[in-house]
């Protein structure tokens, strides 16, 4: 890159040629540093987003299982309303809802004197929640 020039400028030319590789090395180090910092920031952002998505999925499964447990109780009460001669104990399910989702609900109806106890359970994504209702006749 440094070409010989006029004899008068030869001394200046040598000093310039010696300085240029040092500038290139500095520029290379700065580029590597900037790329390293950028990589760290990007990896950190991806890790944070992955963690947030996992938390969101867990929250959705937690809430879905509660709604499914409530559906089980409502299903049992609808069967009791539809057929008043139905005598406990009896169970419903497990029923997959919606079909193909892997989320299920089931209910158990138990009679205790004048009281009916309906226990519904909902399972979604490995999380199971329960709802229990007591009805007095």
- Uncertain runs are none
**What share of residues is helical?**
40-55%
Task: Give a quick account of the main beta sheet: strands, pairing sense, barrel closure.
Answer: 4 strands, antiparallel
Structural category is: alpha+beta
Oligomer: single chain
Q: What is the H/E order?
A: HEEEE
Order of the strands making up the biggest sheet: 1-2-3-4
Ends distance: 99 Å
Percent of sequence in beta strands: 25-35%
Total number of distinct structural domains: 1
- Count of strand segments: 4
- Give the mean pLDDT: 88
Total DSSP helices: 1
Provide the gyration radius in Å.
Answer: 36 Å
The coarse overall form would be rod-shaped
Q: Quick recap of the structure?
A:
The chain is of the alpha+beta class and 137 residues long. The protein has one helix spanning 10-82, and strands at residues 90-96, 104-112, 115-124, 127-136.
């Amino acid at each position: 890159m440094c070409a010989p020039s006029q004899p008068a400028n030869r001394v200046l030319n040598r000093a310039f040629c010696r300085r240029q590789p040092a500038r290139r090395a500095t520029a290379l180090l700065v580029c590597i540093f900037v790329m390293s910092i950028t990589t760290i920031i990007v990896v950190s952002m991806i890790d944070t987003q992955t963690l947030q998505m996992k938390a969101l999925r867990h929250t959705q499964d937690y809430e879905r299982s509660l709604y499914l447990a409530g559906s089980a109780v409502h299903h049992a009460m609808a069967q009791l309303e539809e057929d008043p001669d139905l005598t406990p104990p009896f169970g419903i399910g497990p029923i997959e809802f919606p079909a193909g989702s892997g989320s299920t609900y089931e209910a158990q109806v138990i009679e205790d004197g004048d009281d009916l106890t309906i226990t519904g359970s909902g399972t979604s994504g490995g999380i199971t929640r329960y709802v229990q209702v007591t009805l007095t006749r």
